[in-house]
Write a structure and sequence with these properties.
The radius of gyration is 19 Å and the shape is globular. The strands form 4 sheets. Strands 4-5-9-10-13-16-17-18-20 form a 9-stranded mixed sheet, covered by helices on one side. A 6-stranded antiparallel sheet has the order 1-2-3-11-12-19, with no helix packed on it. A hairpin with a 2-residue loop joins strand 4 and strand 5. The chain has a domain of 84 residues. The longest helix has 16 residues. Helix 1 packs antiparallel against helix 5 and helix 5 runs antiparallel to helix 6. 26% of the residues lie in helices and 30% in strands. The protein has 7 helices and 20 strands. It is α+β, with helices and mostly antiparallel strands.
Length: 315
């Protein structure tokens, strides 16, 4: 659910908000990747808007599971595909992230996620083969999926698009920008952000970034939704033990997007250990409505304010 308030000039997505903090910034929005992509740029750099949206569209054309002619859809149809450099890089990154998260980020849950998108119920997910690599053959840029496998890169694609566009903006001498795609937000320079209360429609907390780069990714079961949108690849079941997972780091939205997906499937203790090992800051809310925050959140953001904590317990 996306709510745009023109009176307050706040963009509210399903899980995160970003607020215009300077009259010297312009904001434009466009529906891409099935979500409202919002971009803030300096008023003297408005010519860069189309380049940013074009990069999002290009990634969507290649990685979407909804577009029949995307490279991912062709793979899922059983075709052998000559991947573009972008798709190849994304696929290889997904394999690295699979190992880094101990299998909790797994693009090979695609068969079940695609079924869920089509409202096909009770589709069992077969356990992954012990040798992960038996699910595909990769020769250079040529990829073929095996074992009737299907993949879904949706757990990292928006983060990848945020990274790609912010890198392009920085390389073109734009040092202040915000790019938002659903729960994935990247900042160049100062920005003020909000985390939404998963139970109400109001912000839970706000904070300010004053560093050169901030990456934030949020995923959750919002407004009392009964069905989670994330599958535990180890069990094949949709997970519901977290209401909201928000992760923050200095850069790399791609990795953070995947980590959010992975952490959502992890048991609480394992999630905490993983995030500490990766030096990722977090705000987590479990199904008991208890809020957990990393001890060094202040090292990354400042001006932290709790806004609406009704019905929540701060740990």
């Amino acid at each position: 659910m996306k709510i745009i308030s023109l009176l307050t000039i706040i963009l509210i997505t399903t899980n995160c908000s970003q607020k215009i903090v300077s009259s010297k910034q312009n904001t434009r929005q466009r529906l891409i990747m099935g979500t409202l992509v919002s971009v803030q740029l300096p008023k003297n750099k408005t010519e860069a808007f189309e380049a940013v949206f074009s990069q999002f569209s290009d990634i969507d054309q290649k990685l979407s599971t909804y577009k029949k002619n995307s490279e991912i859809s062709k793979l899922n149809d059983g075709q052998e595909v000559q991947l573009s450099d972008l798709s190849l890089s994304a696929f290889k990154s997904s394999i690295d992230l699979y190992h880094l998260t101990n299998g909790y980020f797994n693009i090979f849950t695609g068969k079940k996620t695609l079924a869920a998108k089509k409202n096909i119920k009770h589709l069992s997910l077969k356990p992954m083969k012990p040798n992960f690599q038996t699910n595909y053959n990769l020769n250079g840029n040529l990829l073929k999926l095996n074992n009737n496998s299907k993949i879904d890169l949706g757990g990292m694609a928006k983060g990848l698009a945020v990274d790609q566009t912010l890198t392009w903006l920085n390389n073109n001498n734009i040092q202040r920008a915000q790019v938002s795609a659903s729960g994935d937000i990247g900042c160049l320079g100062p920005c003020k952000l909000y985390i939404q209360n998963p139970i109400t429609e109001s912000p839970l907390m706000s904070f300010t970034n004053s560093s050169t780069r901030l990456a934030i990714s949020t995923s959750g079961n919002y407004r009392k939704k009964t069905l989670s949108h994330i599958i535990n690849p180890k069990t094949g079941r949709f997970v519901n033990h977290w209401l909201s997972v928000t992760l923050l780091a200095k850069n790399n939205n791609t990795q953070l997007d995947a980590f959010t997906t992975a952490v959502f499937s992890m048991p609480k203790a394992e999630a905490m250990t993983f995030l500490k090992t990766q030096n990722i800051q977090y705000v987590l809310i479990d199904h008991n409505k208890t809020v957990y925050t990393s001890g060094s959140l202040e090292s990354l953001v400042s001006e932290i304010k709790w806004l609406n904590t009704k019905d929540l317990k701060i740990k």
